[in-house]
Amino acid sequence: MQSVLVLMLSQVFVKILGLVYKLYLTNREGFGDKGNAIYSSGFQIYALFLTISSIGIPGAIAKLVSEHTAIGDYKGAHRIFKIALVTFGLISFICSSILFLGANYIANNFLQIPEAELTLVALSPSIFLVSISCVIKGYFNGMENLKVTANAQTLEQFFKTVLSVILVEFIAVVSGTDTVIMAAGANLATTLATFLCFFYLYRYYRIMKKEISYEIKSSTNYKPTRIRKTLKQILSVSIPMSIGAIIGTINKNVDSITIVRGLKNFLSEEQAKIQYGILSGKVDTLVTLPMSFNMAFATALVPTISSSKAIGDIQTAKKRISFSLLITTLIGLPCMAIMIIFAEPILKLLFPNATSGSFIYQISSLGIIFIVLEQTISGALHGLGKMLVPAIALGIGSIVKIILNCYLVPINSNIFILGGTAGAAFATVVCHVISVSIEYNALKKEINLKLNPIKFIIKPLISVAIMSICTILLYKTLILKIGQKLGLILALIIGIIIYLICIFVLKIFSKEEIFMIPFGKKVYNFFSFKKNS
Description:
The protein is mostly helical. The protein folds into three domains: about 30-220, no CATH class; about 265-450, no CATH class; about 450-533, no CATH class. The chain has helices at about 1-25, 30-55, 55-70, 75-100, 105-110, 115-140, 145-175, 180-205, 210-215, 225-265, 270-285, 290-310, 315-340, 345-350, 360-365, 370-385, 390-410, 420-445, 455-480, 485-505, 510-515, 520-525. It starts with a helix and ends in a 6-residue tail after the last helix.
């Protein structure tokens, strides 16, 4: 849990930094929702290439490395790392080249947003850099050293934020606020940040080389294998993991390809791009914010469950999965409630120069609890060796999303409330509902998982309901005395404190679960809990 906490804090910091530069870009004169549309459309294509070349790598390498280290085979673990480094370096280099050379064709024919060409060119080198970095992260994750990933992610996002502001401001002065070049500059900042992240990871690996060499020399249970067999082993894990990530990225590209096309039926091209920018820029940034709190559990579950399974300790795996699902639920529900209830005030607070999109934001927020649960369950299934299940589940959900997008997006929202961009947001929610349902049933069947509905559903819902009512009343009172912005911030802070108190007063956690949390003993003594049966 201490490792999870470190990674969680890193993820939160990363998301906050990401939100900062997104706030800056959206509120920047000459950028706004249109700039977000150009930026995001290019970024989603880049993300697809990145997924193909690297997204499954950290989890796959972590799983295989943890399985070898669990039985003392550090030499075999390092061999997997070296072979993966060469393999994915080659794959990612090819993907970088394709994106660089095909930028014009992709922007004009697939996206129908010609302005996105420069953003694709600017992003293309990142694919190679991120892929190599992912192999290094996966190796250290498998050794249960999550601090490396946490530090790397934090550094990358910090440089991305700082460099985005510097480059966009410089381009704005030189080009006279040319939105297209500003969007390309923002994506160039991503490439520079990934290079600095890679440099940090490389330096860390060099520093740890002596310790790694010592572990390799003291290795036991090492069984030499052919490179081809090891490569097959790596790909047999990474490909299924990547398939799920690829489908998830395709989900985002469905929006980038269908929304502008569909909205042109009743809006001008300029307005269509702005609507897509609202969803892909502001709304997606806010809705995915809770994932930063939860990502640590999904990341940590893969190696920990893999190592438990490798030594036949299924009971420990079940405890860790149950606890992670409980934390995920307790994170997702309040985030969903707050974003639905306070959608309009939040947009006014964060995006004063581009406040539109509250209804789209509310629709998208309905999917938060399903997105975070899907995240955790996928990690559990990967750790148990069921890599294809999350991919199949998300694939079925994505097919439904494509159908709904094609049907709902071309409908004017003035005629049907879930038409236009709101239809795309609703389709995404349906996609994740279907996906998480399939994944949960598979997990339940695999390990005979039994969750108490009172503990996992009813008590969390009661806590959220109390928090929501108190926050609404506080907000209505405070806006009259200290204004809307300060009133909202203070009401949300007090609401979160009330929610945390409700969690412990309702005794959602058992004594054992409280002790798993860092500083859990102090929390337990503070609330004077009686031992749960």
